[in-house]
């Protein structure tokens, strides 16, 4: 595992305080606070139904919080729309990938680049991003014909197309084989370490989390139950109990 202490992590980019989101009687996100810095990779883990995707939806503008606040790059974005969050520099992927299946790979990524550029420049930027994620040979292939692994790469390229400062990756490694996971780990690490992006990743693959994350946040029943370095968090009794159950 890389010694994350040996590289520089930048100043704070995201700060969320006391976030709460209810769905009827269910409290999906319960007083969650976190902060993320430039170039930092954060693993967000927890059992199914712990509130991880709901938290992503708040941070990216798909949902507004019932209480609490979010600031990004010094700007209050609490309750801002998804388009405002994207323009601020928050890019995200979705657990269930939904490319524009009738469009080519190039056209899918161009759509996102149009957020910041006119068409001709957006097409050039899209081609650069597609090459960066290793899909140049699939540039003109229709998205609906892609394999799962290529759809995941396309989802990542689409998130990058808005030129984000932070990536929210929702189970980007799910369904991939060992070789594909290793390639994706290398890509994600390069975006943080070389490009300076902050990354928060929801992930059930603990090997990937241990390989990538500078710190890990654990949710259970909507609450944050642990936060810290991966090798410490995975030994936390509360975390072990959340995943494996308690004998008490």
TrEMBL record:
Keyword Iron-sulfur: no
GO molecular function: ATP binding
Gene3D superfamilies given in the database record: P-loop containing nucleotide triphosphate hydrolases
Pfam families, per database record: ABC_tran (PF00005), BCA_ABC_TP_C (PF12399)
Domain ABC transporter: 14-246
UniProt KW keywords: ATP-binding, Nucleotide-binding, Transport
InterPro entries tied to this protein: AAA+_ATPase, ABC_AA/LPS_Transport, ABC_transporter-like_ATP-bd, BCA_ABC_TP_C, P-loop_NTPase
Role description: Involved in beta-(1-->2)glucan export. Transmembrane domains (TMD) form a pore in the inner membrane and the ATP-binding domain (NBD) is responsible for energy generation.
Protein name, as recorded: Branched-chain amino acid transport system ATP-binding protein
Organism ancestry: Bacteria, Pseudomonadati, Pseudomonadota, Alphaproteobacteria, Hyphomicrobiales
